[in-house]
């Protein structure tokens, strides 16, 4: 069994709030997201309790059941852009570089292509997050633009890259 296959991917549940909170507040995670440090567990619990139907959130669990990462899609619900979604992905510091991101991306892109019928998946990533950029490129995401001084990180405004993956299945071309 390969590293990436060693993870159970499943839908996130409200009972995963503490594990997701641990990931989102990890020192190597939150600086590369839009999350603030010191976010309370109650905020994460509320997010999972009130998750809208257009958010498809998954977790990757290690063999011992530990939640190692979270990722998914926020599908646009406006009629003219329903064919697109925004991607989100976080992997706990302890699990980065161990295939968790790839395992989640494999399932997320399959869900987008084969179950949700999405044509476009887009994301934003901080310009210097080389590991994340390489992962996205591995799954067919391409650079579309740069948003200068978009995100405040540790007191400094950072550039954010916009990337997207287009999948034009035969049904879209006809």
Automatic annotation (TrEMBL):
UniProt KW Membrane keyword: no
Keyword rRNA processing part of the UniProt annotation: no
InterPro entries according to UniProt: Acyl_CoA_acyltransferase (IPR016181), GNAT_dom (IPR000182), N-acetyltransferase (IPR051531)
Pfam families for the chain: Acetyltransf_1
One MF term in the entry's GO annotations: acyltransferase activity, transferring groups other than amino-acyl groups
Keyword annotations of the record: Acyltransferase, Transferase
N-acetyltransferase domain residues: 7-168
CDD domains, per the entry: NAT_SF
Family: Belongs to the acetyltransferase family. RimJ subfamily.
Designated name of the protein: N-acetyltransferase domain-containing protein
């Amino acid at each position: 069994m390969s590293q990436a296959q060693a993870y159970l991917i499943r839908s996130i549940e409200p009972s995963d709030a503490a594990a997701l909170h641990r990931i989102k507040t990890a020192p190597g995670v939150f600086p590369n997201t839009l999350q603030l440090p010191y976010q309370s567990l109650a905020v994460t619990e509320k997010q999972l309790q009130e998750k809208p139907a257009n958010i498809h959130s998954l977790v990757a669990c290690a063999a011992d059941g530990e939640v190692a990462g979270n990722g998914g899609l926020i599908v646009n619900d406006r009629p003219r852009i329903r064919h697109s979604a925004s991607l989100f992905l976080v992997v706990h510091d302890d699990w980065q570089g161990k295939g968790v991101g790839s395992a989640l991306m494999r399932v997320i892109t399959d869900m987008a292509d084969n179950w949700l019928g999405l044509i476009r998946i887009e994301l934003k990533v901080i310009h210097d997050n080389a590991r994340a950029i390489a992962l996205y490129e591995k799954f067919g995401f391409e650079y579309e633009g740069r948003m200068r001084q978009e995100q405040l990180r540790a007191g400094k405004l950072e550039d954010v890259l916009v990337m997207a993956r287009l999948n034009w299945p035969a049904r879209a071309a006809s």
